[in-house]
Design a protein that fits this description.
Membrane topology: Multi-pass membrane protein
Structural class: mainly alpha
Number of strands: 4
Family: Belongs to the G-protein coupled receptor 1 family.
Organism: Acanthaster planci (Crown-of-thorns starfish)
Helix content: over 70%
Distance between the termini: 132 Å
Keywords: Cell membrane, G-protein coupled receptor, Membrane, Receptor, Transducer, Transmembrane, Transmembrane helix
Number of helices: 14
Protein name: Alpha-1A adrenergic receptor-like
Radius of gyration: 33 Å
Order of helices and strands: HHHHHHHEEHHEEHHHHH
Strand order of the largest sheet: 1-2
Length: 387
């Protein structure tokens, strides 16, 4: 009885232990399963955050959006390249357009041409879903040229504003003394040299040009620890001063013109200032026109107004991106607001063609292939005709 009793106790004990082990293993499996589920949920959250963006882990992975933006870049590149080339060609063919002011207009067109020439490479980076397909140096150069040409555009707009201010508010003698060929050349060189120096900061270890894994395009390499510092320095050194110059110059022009028009209306006469072609045979840049109705620099004021439209277009293209940068956790909209900037490369020729009195006429003859009707043909055009 004792033996059987002990055997029965041992059997019960083994059954209890077995049940305990099974229960423990089941609990362990449930914990493992729960851990895997938690891991899967964490991975899911990270993937969702990476796609949609929280300001820190954003990645521009959406293929549809990348294709749309890539197509926009391609379209703007074609239109912008054609339009800015027409601006340059118009000045080459018509002596009437070869003025001191238009030196800066042509320089602006060259900057926009370079700006548009980077678009195909940016399109390639957006459409390539497996990363940048070419040598990294190509992407770095593209990013540096994009920044330099954009900054050069701002510098040229400021130089044009100063030019219009001096032309309209100062005497013709002052205008000719400021805008000599040597000084104009120095201004043009500065408009390219200064942005180029700022764009070379990555060579000093501040920031780095390259392929951005974050935005999937050729811009700053966002993996660099000094990216934020370079963005801050680039923005502070390049944009505030030219924009202040633009606002001050055009405001002073407006006040000067409105005040002078009131005086001329009272006297019953007007003054016409001409920014004539830059030629040694030009006797003067000031002409008096006493025929009614009274006006003050009507043609030059109209040209200045159109150039002010160019400034407004630039600000309109740049403002959404600048505002976007000031909004926290808005990285997911930066690819779109930065795309708006490239439209600046096509608006200038459209404004010239639609509003500028001289460019409008020359463009019309160029588009209709009526080169023999271009007013005041340049020596280059006359040589082409004589062949």
């Amino acid at each position: 009885m004792s033996f059987h009793h002990n055997e029965k106790e041992m059997t019960v004990t083994m059954m209890v232990e077995t049940m305990t082990v099974v229960s423990t293993m089941r609990d362990h499996d449930q914990l493992s399963s729960g851990g895997n589920m938690a891991s899967d949920m964490t991975t899911s959250v990270v993937m969702e955050t990476t796609t949609q963006g929280d300001g820190q882990t954003f990645r521009f992975e959406n293929p549809v959006q990348r294709i749309i933006i890539g197509c926009i870049y391609s379209l703007v590149a074609v239109v912008g390249f054609s339009g800015n080339f027409m601006v340059i060609l118009a000045v080459i063919l018509s002596r009437k357009l070869q003025t001191r002011t238009n030196v800066f207009v042509v320089n602006l067109a060259v900057a926009d041409l370079l700006f548009c020439s980077t678009a195909p490479f940016i399109t390639l980076s957006l459409l390539s879903m497996n990363g940048w397909p070419l040598p990294l140096i190509v992407c770095s150069i593209t990013a540096a040229l994009f920044y330099t040409s954009l900054a050069c555009s701002v510098m040229n707009l400021a130089l044009i504003a100063i030019n219009r201010f001096i032309l309209i508010t100062k005497t013709s003698k002052t205008y000719r003394s400021v805008y000599t060929p040597k000084k104009i050349t120095a201004m043009v060189v500065f408009s390219w040299g200064y942005p180029a120096v700022v764009a070379c900061f990555p060579l000093l270890g501040i920031g780095r040009w390259g392929y951005s894994e974050k935005y999937k395009t050729c811009t700053q390499d966002t993996s660099s620890k000094t990216t934020g510092l370079f963005s801050l320095l680039g923005s502070v050194l390049m944009y505030p001063i030219p924009l202040i110059i633009l606002l001050v110059c055009y405001f002073k022009i407006y006040r000067h013109v409105t005040g002078h028009m009131k005086k001329m209306v009272g006297k019953g006469k007007g003054t016409e200032i001409e920014d004539t072609p830059n030629s040694p045979n030009t006797p003067s840049t000031t002409q008096l026109n006493r025929n009614p109705p009274p006006s003050f620099s009507k043609r030059q004021v109209e040209i200045t107004k159109n150039l002010f439209y160019v400034v407004c277009a630039f600000v309109a293209c740049l403002a959404p991106f600048a505002i976007n940068l000031m909004i926290p956790a808005s990285d997911h909209t930066i690819p779109w607001t930065s795309t708006i900037i490239i439209f600046n490369g096509i608006v200038n020729p459209i404004i010239y063609g639609a509003k500028h009195p001289h460019f409008k006429e020359v463009f019309r003859h160029m588009l209709r292939c009526r080169y023999h009707m271009i007013p005041e043909p340049s020596g280059c055009l006359r040589k082409i005709r004589s062949r």
